[in-house]
Amino acid sequence: MRWEKLTTLEIGALDRSIPVILNIGAIEQHGPHLPLDTDAQIGAHFLRELDARHHDKVLILPPVVVCASAHHMDFAGTLTVQHTTLLAYVTDILDSVAAHGFRNILLFNSHGGNQAIGQVILESFGSRHPECQVAMLTWWRIATDALLTVQESPFGGVGHACEFETSLMLLIDETSVRRDLIPGRSHVMTHEWANSDLLRGGKGSLFRTMAEISGGSGVVGDPSLASAEKGRIITGIVVDSLAEIVDSLR
C-alpha cells in the first residue's frame, strides 16, 4: 500500500504493526548512458515489486530522492543536500510515522552515498524511539551471496552505472538507457586495503570523489555486460530477500 494514496481514515484503521518503508535514493550523474534518477528509479522498482507481492502487508512512504551526493558534484546535473540536512529531514518524516503509532519502520537505501548517514539516522531515531523497531537495508547488501553468482565481470565490475545498475534500468525503463553510449569497464583502483566494489568491501575506507574513482567517466564497473534479463534476475533475488526481512519485522 502507498501511504499517500490512502485517506486519513484508511491510515487510521491500519494495524500499527505493519512495516512502514521509506526509500532514500539519489538524483546524480550515472555516466553517459543512464538518467540522473537511476538510483531513485531502482529503489522505486524494488518497492513496486514488493507491493505487488505483499500489498496489504506493507505501507510504503513517498520516497526521498535528493540525498547525499556531494562526491558526484564534479558532474553536471547532480543534486545533493548536506548530511545534516538529510538527517534532519528523514528523521522528521520518521518522527511523523512514529507519532501516528506505527512501530516497525524500515529505511530502504538505493544509493551508496546514503549508507553512512543512513546509519546515523537509524541510531539517532532508534535511541529516541524505544517503542519502535527501526532498521536500514541497502539493496545490494541484503543478498550479496546470491548477487555474486549473477555478476559476470571480475572484481570491480559492479559499482556505479555498472553491470548491475544498467541491467536494472534496461528492465525498468529501456527507453531511458542511451545504448549507443554504454561504455566499457572503468574503475581506478587504489590501495589494496581500500579497494572495493558494490558487493565486496575493503578493509577500510578511503575518501575519493566519483571523478577520481571512475577516472573521470562517471562509471565504476562494466556496464557493457548489462542485460534486461540480468536485471530481472537481480530483481527476483533482491525482492525475495526484502520480502523475507519485511515479514520478520511483523
Keywords:
250 residues; 4 strands; 8 helices; 4-stranded parallel β-sheet; 37% helix; alpha/beta
Q: Just name the CATH architecture.
A: 3-Layer(aba) Sandwich
If you average the pLDDT, what whole number results?
97
Main-sheet strand order equals 2-1-3-4
Q: What count of structural domains?
A: 1
Q: Give the class-level CATH name.
A: Alpha Beta
Helices, by number, come to 8
Pick out the low-confidence regions.
none
Cofactor: Zn(2+)
GO molecular function, one term: metal ion binding
Keywords: Hydrolase, Metal-binding, Zinc
Family: Belongs to the creatininase superfamily.
What can be said about this structure in brief?
Pfam families: Creatininase (PF02633). By secondary structure, this protein is an alpha/beta fold.
Please characterize this protein's 3D structure:
- The protein has 250 residues and is of the alpha/beta class.
- The chain has one domain: 3-Layer(aba) Sandwich (Rossmann fold).
- Helix content is 37%, strand content 8%.
- It is built from eight helices and four strands.
- It has helices spanning 8-12, 38-53, 83-99, 115-128, 144-148, 163-172, 210-213, 228-249; strands spanning 20-24, 59-60, 104-109, 133-138.
- Strands 2-1-3-4 form a four-stranded parallel sheet, with helices on both faces.
- Strand 3 (104-109), helix 4 and strand 4 form a beta-alpha-beta unit.
- It starts with 7 loop residues before the first helix and ends with a helix.
- The model has no long low-confidence stretch (mean pLDDT 97).
